[in-house]
Structure formats: structure tokens, C-alpha cells
């Protein structure tokens, strides 16, 4: 099977990460793959902010539940990830979320190709403007006029990963 197709078909979301650090070289390669994602009219207005600072990560997972009804703060910690890629774009860009989704997919596939696990986390798309969240984002270097559409939590799986449980349907209309 083609290596690219195999990478796509074998990637799984990881929701429990070990404490093992990802090398700077691998983080740079994964982020670079995100840079090459397509964007509407090739505007490339998104930013990938790589966060490995434990204080910033803790500030984010502590602050986010304050702005989200029903989120259990005591259980919330980005699945234990010590490496986040915050994928943001201009808050007023109509299709920024779609551009960031393309970036995220490149990041997830690149991570898998180097043996790093990943999972999509949504919580910042609705909380980027919360005062404590915004302060942490500012300290991380996310532009003030950006909304974080996707958090890519990265790390090494702390448990074996099984087969994909759910597969979306394919329908041909010929």
C-alpha cells in the first residue's frame, strides 16, 4: 500500500499521553507540515503556536472550564499532553476555521508519520476571548486578533492504541 494512504488509514486519536517529551526536531517537522496546508486564496493568515511551557498549558486547562458550561475542570488537562499546537487565524476571517482544520489534519498526519500521537481539542474556539484564557494566549504568542480554532494535543500514547471503532459511511451516486 502507498505510504501516504497507509499513514492516513492507521492514524488514531490518542486520549492518554505519557510524560515522554517530543524532540524539538520532531515538533518543528510536524509544525512545518502544518505550514504547508492549503488555505483559502492562499492567504496563509493562520499561525501555529507550539506550546511546551508547562505553566502556559496549566493556565489554559485551568482557565478554559471557567468559560465553558458543563466542563469538569478537575478532569480537564488536554489528556495529559505536554505539547500543544494552537492553530489560530484572524477572528474576523469568515473561513478561518476551515483553514485551521486543514492545518490540523496536516499536523495530525505528520505527527503519526514520526510516531507521535495526537488528538483534536475544541475548547479554545469558544473561549479564546475569556480574560484568563486570552492572557495565557497572549503570553504564548497567539496574536491578539486571532481566535484559536484548533488545539492539537501531541504526545506519545500511554496505552496501546486499538483499531478505529467508527468509520463514516461512503456513498457513491453513479
> Would you identify the CATH H-level superfamily?
NADH Oxidase
CATH class: Alpha Beta
**How many distinct helices?**
5
As laid out across the biggest beta sheet, the strand order is 1-2-4-3
Instruction: Let me know the largest β-sheet.
Output: 4 strands, antiparallel
Summing up helix and strand content along with how strands pair, one would put the structural category as alpha+beta
Describe this structure in words.
With 174 residues, the chain is an alpha+beta fold. The protein has one domain (30-155): NADH Oxidase (3-Layer(aba) Sandwich). 33% of the residues lie in helices and 16% in strands. It is built from 5 helices and 4 strands. The protein has a 4-stranded antiparallel β-sheet with strand order 1-2-4-3. The radius of gyration is 16 Å and the shape is globular. The mean pLDDT is 90.
List the helices and strands and how they pair.
Blueprint (H helix, E strand, L loop, with lengths): L2 H8 L13 H12 L11 E5 L2 H10 L19 E8 L5 H18 L3 E5 L9 H10 L5 E10 L19
Antiparallel strand pairs: 1-2, 2-4, 3-4
Helix pairs in contact: 2-4, 3-5
Structural features:
alpha+beta, 174 residues, four-stranded antiparallel beta sheet, 4 strands, NADH Oxidase
Task: Give a quick summary of the entry.
The chain has helices at 3-10, 24-35, 54-63, 96-113, 131-140; strands spanning 47-51, 83-90, 117-121, 146-155.
